[in-house]
Specification:
homodimer, alpha/beta, Rossmann fold, six-stranded parallel sheet, two-stranded antiparallel ribbon, 21% strand, globular, cupric reductase (NADH) activity (chains A, B), oxidoreductase activity, acting on NAD(P)H (chains A, B), ferric-chelate reductase (NADPH) activity (chains A, B)
């Protein structure tokens, strides 16, 4: 499958590219608003994987070009860029392209991080309003720590919650997720269940901030 | 230490009484609006623990009587009874009594369970407004599944998140929690961080509903 990771030059995007590159044979496209940056990062990922004996061909493109070529488009951008990114790529999407949102809106005050719930109900609901009607949307990868995900020396043991109203699209994203060693995808129903999933991310940061020895926290349901 | 578990006749209250009874030597008081029910349940818990070779003396009382005798009062009642329960016991509380809230407000629709965030910001904030000013309030035990907690045959491996603005009171609740085998208390800061903690409970129910083989789910941060 061809997966475009928009915002694939940093944070959670980088981890997804490296893990899919390491554990699967999916074709990976790194997207960025800056195509030069996308190409540079794609080369870096190839080099990193090559150093571990994994031969890949990762290409970098401007976001819309990456989306155009992909079966699955992951919006690994900050919450406040989600709508703008969708607007920039919507001509390249159709009912055969699955949009995936891992974005979480947060705000910080003196007590820690808080879920900044958008008026639409969730960041996923914002994305749902912004995208063309016939393009399926799935939520996933919200609660994975970027650092641990991108560190291929780290053995993972985390769950990720997957939601969406299109069962076929959700099932494809569940399969893509299960391809990453140590990440267990768990179905959490439809788009209406997004807020509780997105709200876990600030909680993880608060727990890591308050407890010595805990960092790069993910979550396991058991 | 003397711990009163109000609403100790059912749900999460039952599990806390049995686990503290099994794993610690704290003095346990079961509270209920109906003192007869409290006494009957207290006897049941004693019998259950006795059958496992643990001798305890668990007493049942009407809520206010239980609170009067306790150093720590756990409000193991549904969210919509939290304020009423505090009003019924407030004469018996003072600055030496720690109030603990595990309550979560939820609503259900066709998609699943959702966090029903009170106007005050959280159920804990509601409790904070209702209690006497000098009584410290701590949040804990929100995300523990009642069934697994109450089943002494089950080995636990769960975290519980503890929050509150009074550091001394929080530290006492952390210690009480650590006394239960297999429950790791994690500090998650002050009362302002309550909503994200309370919102995890409907998420756990949704995950259990959507994934075969998963039930009685708790959470582990790792």
């Amino acid at each position: 499958m061809r997966i475009a990771i928009l915002g694939g030059t940093g944070d959670i995007g980088q981890g997804l590219v490296l893990r899919w590159g390491f554990d699967t044979s999916h074709e990976l496209l790194v997207g960025s608003r800056d195509p030069e940056k996308a190409r540079t990062k794609a080369e870096e990922y190839e080099t990193e994987l090559d150093s571990r004996g994994v031969e890949t061909s990762i290409k970098g493109f401007e976001n819309a070009m990456a989306a155009d070529r992909a079966d699955v488009v992951v919006l690994a951008v900050p919450a406040y860029h989600v709508v703008g990114t969708i607007e920039a790529i919507e001509d390249r999407l159709d009912s055969e392209t699955i949009l995936v949102t891992p974005a979480v809106g947060m705000k910080r005050d003196e007590d820690g991080f808080h879920y900044n719930r958008p008026g639409a109900g969730s960041v996923a609901a914002l994305a749902d309003e912004a995208k063309p009607d016939d393009v399926p949307l799935v939520g996933a990868f919200h609660n994975l720590p970027a650092g641990g995900l991108a560190d291929l020396d780290e053995e993972l043991e985390w769950d990720t919650l997957v939601f969406g109203d299109d069962e076929d699209a959700k099932s494809i994203v569940v399969d893509l997720t299960a391809g990453i060693e140590g990440i267990r995808p768990l179905d959490v129903g439809g788009l209406a269940n997004a807020p509780e999933v997105e709200a876990v991310t600030p909680l993880l940061i608060n727990v890591a901030m308050q407890n010595k020895g805990l960092h790069d926290l993910g979550v396991k349901f058991q």
